[in-house]
Amino acid sequence: MNSVQKNGPVVVGLVVGSSRPGRRGPAVAGWVAEVAAGHPAVRTGTATVELIDLAEQRLPMLDEPAPARFGDYRHDHTRRWSAVVAACDAFIFVTPEYNHSVPAVLKNGIDYLDAEWRGKSAGVLGYGVDGGGQAVEHLRAILAEVGMTVVPNHVELGLFTDFVWPGDDLSDPTAVARIAPGEGRAAALTAMITELLAAAGGRGSGDRPEPERAGGGAGEAAGRAVAPVARR
Questions:
Q1: For all residues of the chain together, what is the average pLDDT?
Q2: Among 129, 131, 113, CA closest to 188
Q3: Are 176 and 165 within 8 A, CB to CB?
Q4: Region for residue 117 given its phi and psi (left: phi exceeds 0; alpha: psi -120 to 50; beta: otherwise)
Q5: Taking 90 as the threshold, does the pLDDT of residue 65 lie above it?
Q6: Which residues contact 68 (CB under 8 A, 6 or more apart)?
Q7: What's the pLDDT at 69?
């Protein structure tokens, strides 16, 4: 980890992969951030965690005329999103399971970019009625396609095993439930974070390469502008 200390901390983007009103993603991400804060690498400043809420990014459904691999971004929202993702060295994706897959907003956010993802490491946390396992597996395939290294360990949270519901009626899908991860969940998350940082290697903020652009145009220059990552 010496190169991390020399070149700056590994920046881990914590992506909230849902946008539905009443979603539980922010609560899950808050727990991830809390556990991550106790990780030795975060405590010593060799890694930092930054929240990236896709609901706040407000990306429209993909509207770029050129495929992302060309990096020829025509819209300001794409350039802003490019800067947010390029500012991170690794990612933890928090996703619910919708119809045995990931939410459209998460797939859409990934599809917007290409070079900004490539060569970076990722960890996945799924949650759902049965733990979100099928969403996790779909997301693994998607992330691999954009050149990310997905660490072997992942975390699953069940809506009826890792949340505390008010009262006895569990049939209301809009009810507010408090996240209460079961035994071993924090240890599993810590292990995933350790794997994630090991996969990121010494890739700290000081030695992060610029995304390569296949073509010129507005996307090439403006896509390199630095924008702050949404914070907790």
A1: 86
A2: 131
A3: no
A4: alpha
A5: yes
A6: 111, 112, 113, 114
A7: 95
Residue-wise pLDDT tens digits, 73-116: 999 999 999 999 999 999 999 999 999 999 999 999 999 999 99
Tokens of 4: 């991390």
State both tokens at 193: 């974070």
Residue type, 114: D
CB 116 within 8 A of CB 85: yes
Joined together, the tokens standing for residue 199 give 């996969």
